[in-house]
TrEMBL record:
The keyword Signal applies. Gene3D superfamilies: FAD/NAD(P)-binding domain, Glucose Oxidase, domain 3. One of its GO terms (molecular function) is flavin adenine dinucleotide binding. This is Choline dehydrogenase, mitochondrial. The keyword Isomerase does not apply. It comes from Mycena sanguinolenta. Belongs to the GMC oxidoreductase family.
Length: 1153
């Protein structure tokens, strides 16, 4: 934005401050001599390391076969305080060392004034110096691009994947309710987007105005494609610092790629013909304005990403442009392309300040050196305080009324009825240099759908001279008229009751009595928002006008492409950095496709580089032993999760009442669950803390680890998720993807309607808040229609590629052995060929074999009840009687109901053609019914407090906010359906069981199965609760929502007696396969239990357990989330217990018995 930047008196003498940031790995070079020494060839040369150029460089080098050189004219972004501190952004430009320091020609619409016209002369380009506002624009903006170019790939719906691919939305730590719509954002992209991180003095007044004045409606999220209204600004800020293309797409983990190089201070002057067939793959550049002109040639393409000023300037000096104009300047014409440099479009603004009856505005710090120093010190120390935000807390996007007389004279310049004509930017301070006294707010009207067009031309043939920049601000009368209406709108905004006793009067606007006076004010004060676009615009492939085709190839030339905002045929009604990122993302894929690649590189996760257990370090090595590979892909499809037991141990229960059941535990590098993500209740974890005497296991202490694990993302179908989850309770920057169902089922609305019709089934917005009671939408570990497991997330390629992390498959560990008398750091394992080996860790062995595998290993190692071990011929090593005891699991029984519908699972079960179509849809697009698991909604409920059941025994739940049972609702029969009929299933599960079982061994053969006795329903109270749960399932379908849909129960009647229900339970109940507790935690000095609260095996050194076996009580939840939480905290416990000393590599020895 224009005019003098915020001039904080204290900081005026320290514009650039080195913060200790250094260039990375030598891959960012300052001198071409260093590049020449490497004697490299590059497939692609990217001219400009700005917003879009950095994206292209990053995405192309995802393929290690592509080598890329970025030539950046400017300086490094490292250590420039005014760039890094968000609130200082208005000081970054103009007239600084990171600015090209351009100025415009005299602007007729502004009374002949010339304006400073800054562009980023720095790595990251203008994303390093802008005000960080992140706005995409309207759906109609991009659909208009598609219509103009004849390429639907530029339409909004087609660009959504690129928006998400760019964006890593990270909510701030403060309250975000009703500030954004999580459904429209990306959470696993590269560039961080967030909300304001600290409250602002005008926040409540701006939002309150939207309820008081109808012409200013509230908009929950202006990045939905429908921006009209007033809402909360979104900004590219990460942890209190600017997030630019340089800090994100050229972050250390990317710039260290061996196929990516950046050369700074490399000012490209021309692109040159490489051979005689119109191929332009050679660039000419200088590193010193008086220095030698150098050339480099790309093997495949040159990509111009020099921006809407730099790109046409380079093309014109290269002889690519209007041949007549070029000849007149003495430039040899190489290719006649008259549209080069034309169509320059920008947003114009004017600022209106208001004197306010308040302190707490920017002026306080600008006039108080001590306060300003305190704010900087706070930011520098903790990245908190008022400097962590851009200066713009809220923004409005508005239209001139359709019946305005303006549109009787002029056609509507906007892209459509959902696209704004103007913007209002709200700031809590004076925009520009403030008067010596008074406190102010500012409202800045901006014309965002301008009709005016300007140009970038040359003033001579000196390729190092600045171009002539004529944005033609307010050159079209309609823009002036819209600006006048926008100014009036700003004045009306502060007439709302919210501003009474706060706004005293306008400041600097002497009279608003006539349109002429307003027009004079505009001409004298209007400036630029610095959003130039369109100077190398796209046009259809066969068109004779335009500069690039829809694939961004320069028309009529080979080997030269443009990827930046200059290609936009029309400026979006938005701050344009988001559009630049989108262009960069799609441009990258267009380049990849043109090379014949059938594979578009997947997003790389950019976040804290951490494995689950050990920190990344050159001197720390970890090895993981696993029995199977997960690469076969059989479990990728979420819908098949229930049937997927191919890679299971297939162990069996000890007889449970009248039957022996399979007990499924996985042997593959994954966890073959149904992907249900539920944390449990706050009381569950607080009970762990009470039992262990360690507050670190309480809910409040573990919330950090929940967020560290979780990367909540929108569902596969990108549906509107309003009222389906609460974003406040989730993590958005973790490793494992969590989402909502990605394909609607016909029972969704009926389930939710039931919560309003039957009192005993309240709606719960988010069962992962720590307060799960009620019925709500299921949350699942699914990403892009595919299972997200610990293997696909924590062992994803970017983590598995670490040189200090190794995974050995087909390695069945049989025992842990003493490595010396007081330490157990050796494991015995069998390889694929049946050979036994020993492997010794330098620091620790961590058992994560699960609640069946871990006690089985301990027992065969001689760690357990000495008497029992001796009786089966195992030599006791360490008497620990609790090993294998306390096995807890959730028991279930399910009810099915005949339904009056064919839209259930059974239809595809019985129709091979339909099933094949569904699979083909999933295989091709990761959409359709197979993107979901089979569990639509869940309910967490309690039996009444006055139930006679609770008169017999103490309440088994962790507290009054913890459920006794769960209802899982499914759009089809769970299990093998009958040959006819369609069904609804409701599974009931006892989630706070009293019953306890065990894992024991009855032989010294380490390869024999353990004896697994979950003792399901062994306690009468569990049986009685399951009976009540079944009754509850039947009651649920009596709601009006199910009339005409549910025909009758199947297998159990509503009129069944309790005795009949009990028989049904005994014949049909089973396990949910949630075993926990067989190596449970206890206080450090307790004589019972297996591990202490730090998860160390009691009485031994070098041996720790990190899995669900350490749980003292089973959480009232599907325990996958608990397993992740345990591992995340354990990783920190292990890190804290070891200093970072060098560790020798583990050694492996052959061993035979």
């Amino acid at each position: 934005m224009s005019d003098p930047p915020l001039t904080m008196i204290l900081f005026s003498s320290i514009l650039i401050l080195t913060l200790g940031t250094t260039l990375c790995s030598g891959i960012i070079l300052d001198n071409v001599a260093d590049l020449n020494k490497l004697n490299l060839k590059f497939d692609f040369i990217v001219v400009g390391g700005g917003t879009a150029g950095a994206v292209v460089a990053n995405r192309l080098t995802e393929n290690s076969d592509n080598s890329v050189l970025v030539l950046e004219a400017g300086v490094s972004n490292a250590g420039v305080l005014d760039i890094i501190v968000p609130f200082f952004s208005p000081r970054a430009v103009p007239n600084t060392a990171v600015d090209w320091n351009y100025s415009t020609t005299a602007q007729v619409g502004l009374g002949g004034r010339s304006l400073a016209y800054p562009r980023g002369f720095v790595l990251g380009g203008s994303s390093s110096v802008n005000d960080m506002v992140y706005t995409r624009g309207s759906k109609e903006d991009y659909d208009r691009w598609a219509n103009i170019t004849g390429d639907d790939g530029w339409a909004w719906n087609q660009l959504i994947p690129y928006m998400r691919k760019n964006e890593r939305f990270t909510p701030p730590s403060n309250e975000t309710t009703e500030k954004f719509n999580p459904a429209v954002h990306g959470y696993d992209g590269i560039n961080t987007v967030s909300l304001q991180g600290i409250p602002n003095i005008i926040d409540s007044r701006v939002i309150q105005t939207t309820t008081e004045l109808a012409q200013f409606p509230f908009n929950l999220d202006m990045n939905s494609g429908y921006p009209l209204g007033i809402g909360w600004e979104q900004q590219t800020v990460k942890n209190g610092s600017r997030s630019s293309s340089a800090t994100s797409y050229l972050a250390p983990q990317f710039i260290s790629r061996p196929n990516l190089y950046v050369l700074l201070h490399a000012r490209v002057t021309r692109v040159l013909q490489t051979n005689s067939n119109n191929t332009f793959r050679t660039v000419e550049f200088v590193q010193d304005l008086d220095g030698e002109k150098l050339t480099l040639t790309a093997e495949k393409e040159v990509i111009l990403s020099a921006g809407s000023i730099g790109t046409p300037n380079i093309l014109l000096h290269s002889g690519i442009g209007n041949s007549t104009a070029l000849s007149s300047l003495g430039i040899d014409v190489v290719h006649n392309l008259p549209s080069v440099g034309q169509n320059l479009t920008d947003h114009s603004l004017v600022s209106v300040a208001f004197l306010v009856n308040s302190s707490g505005t920017w002026e306080d710090a600008e006039r108080n050196a001590t306060l300003a120093a305190e704010q900087l010190a706070q930011w520098n120390t903790t990245r908190t305080g008022p400097l962590i935000d851009s200066p713009t807390p809220q923004i409005g996007w508005l239209r001139v009324p359709d019946n305005s007389s303006i549109f009787e004279q002029f056609s509507d310049p906007s892209a459509g009825p959902e696209t704004p004509h103007y913007e209002l930017i709200f700031t809590s301070g004076f925009f520009g240099v403030p008067p010596p006294t008074g406190n102010f707010i500012d409202i800045i009207p901006v014309v965002v759908s301008p009709a005016s067009r300007g140009s970038v031309t040359l003033q001579g043939n000196d390729s190092l001279s600045a171009p002539l920049i004529d944005p033609n601000f307010l050159g079209s009368e309609v823009d002036l008229l819209i600006m006048r209406e926008a100014l009036k709108s700003a004045l009306r905004f502060v007439t709302a009751p919210a501003w009474q006793d706060f706004v005293i009067s306008p400041f600097g606007l002497n009279s608003t009595d006539s349109d002429e006076e307003l027009d004079d004010f505009i001409r004298e004060n209007a400036g630029a928002v610095y959003h130039p676009s369109g100077t190398a615009k796209m046009s259809p492939k066969g068109a004779t006008w335009g500069v690039v085709d829809p694939d961004l190839n320069v028309k009529g030339l080979i080997g030269l492409r443009v990827v930046d905002l200059s290609i936009a045929p029309l400026i979006p009604a938005a701050h344009t950095q988001a559009a630049a990122y989108i262009i960069g993302e799609r441009g990258s894929d267009l380049i990849k496709r043109s090379l014949g690649s059938n594979l578009i590189a997947k997003y790389q996760y950019v976040g804290p580089d951490r494995p689950v257990l050990l920190p990344p370090s050159d001197t720390t090595y970890s090895v993981r032993l696993e029995l199977h590979n997960n690469a076969s892909g059989g479990n990728e499809r979420p819908f098949n999760s229930v049937q997927s037991r191919i890679c299971s141990w297939r162990k069996q229960f000890r007889q449970q009442v009248n039957s022996v059941e399979d007990y499924t535990q996985v042997t593959e590098l994954n966890f073959t669950d149904s992907m249900v993500y539920t944390r449990g209740s706050k009381e569950d974890f607080d009970r762990w803390a009470n039992v262990t005497g360690d507050e670190g296991w309480s809910w409040n202490s573990l919330v950090h680890y929940m967020r560290k694990n979780e990367r909540f993302i929108p569902p596969s179908d990108n549906h509107n998720t309003t009222e389906q989850f609460d974003p406040r309770v989730h993590g958005f920057a973790g490793i494992n993807a969590v989402s909502l169902q990605g394909f609607p089922t016909p029972i969704n609305s009926r389930i939710i309607d039931t919560t309003t019709q039957l009192e005993g089934y309240p709606f719960n917005l988010d069962m992962n808040s720590g307060y799960p009671l009620g019925i709500g939408w299921g949350q699942v570990t699914i990403e892009n229609g595919t299972r997200s497991s610990s293997a696909t997330s924590y062992l994803a390629p970017q983590f598995a590629a670490r040189p200090n992390l190794h995974v050995l498959l087909h390695a069945r560990v049989t025992r842990v052995l003493p490595s010396r008398p007081d330490a157990v750091r050796t494991v015995e394992f069998q390889d694929l060929n049946g050979k036994l080996h020993h492997l010794t860790a330098a620091k620790e062995v961590i058992l994560s074999a699960g609640s069946i595998g871990t006690p089985n290993l301990l027992l065969h190692s001689g760690i357990g009840n000495s008497s029992t071990l001796t009786s089966v011929g195992i030599q006791p090593m360490h008497n620990l009687a609790s090993v294998g005891q306390n096995l807890s699991d959730h028991s279930f029984a399910f009810m099915s109901f005949y339904v009056n519908s064919t839209d259930t699972f059974e239809t595809a079960d019985r129709n091979a053609t339909l099933a094949a179509e569904q699979f083909a849809q999933w295989n091709a697009t990761r959409t359709g019914p197979l993107v979901n698991n089979q569990l639509s909604h869940m309910g967490w409920l309690r039996i009444p407090d006055n139930s006679s059941i609770l008169e017999r025994v103490p309440d088994p739940a962790a507290g009054p906010n913890t459920p006794h049972y769960e209802l899982i609702i499914s759009n089809g029969m769970l299990g093998v359906p009958p040959s006819t009929g369609n069904f609804l299933s409701i599974m009931t599960a006892v989630v706070s069981p009293v019953s306890r079982g065990s894992v024991t061994v009855n032989t010294s053969d380490a390869f024999a199965d353990p004896v697994i006795d979950p003792n399901l329903l062994g306690s009468e109270i569990d049986f009685l609760i399951l009976r009540e749960a079944l009754k509850s399932a039947m009651d649920f379908t009596t709601a009006p929502a199910w009339r005409g849909y549910v025909l009758s129960p199947f297998g159990l009647n509503r009129t069944s007696t309790e005795a009949e229900v009990d028989d049904y339970i005994r014949e049909n109940s089973g396990s949910v396969f949630h075993p926990v507790g067989t190596a449970s935690m206890s206080p450090k000095d307790a004589t019972w239990g297996v591990v202490d609260p730090d998860l160390k095996v009691k009485g031994l050194k070098g041996l720790r357990i990190v899995d669900l076996s350490v749980v003292p009580f089973i959480p009232a939840a599907h325990p996958m989330a608990a397993a992740y939480i345990i591992a995340e905290r354990a990783a920190d416990l292990i890190k804290a217990s070891w200093s970072r000393k060098s560790v020798s590599l583990f050694s492996v020895q052959d061993y035979s018995e």
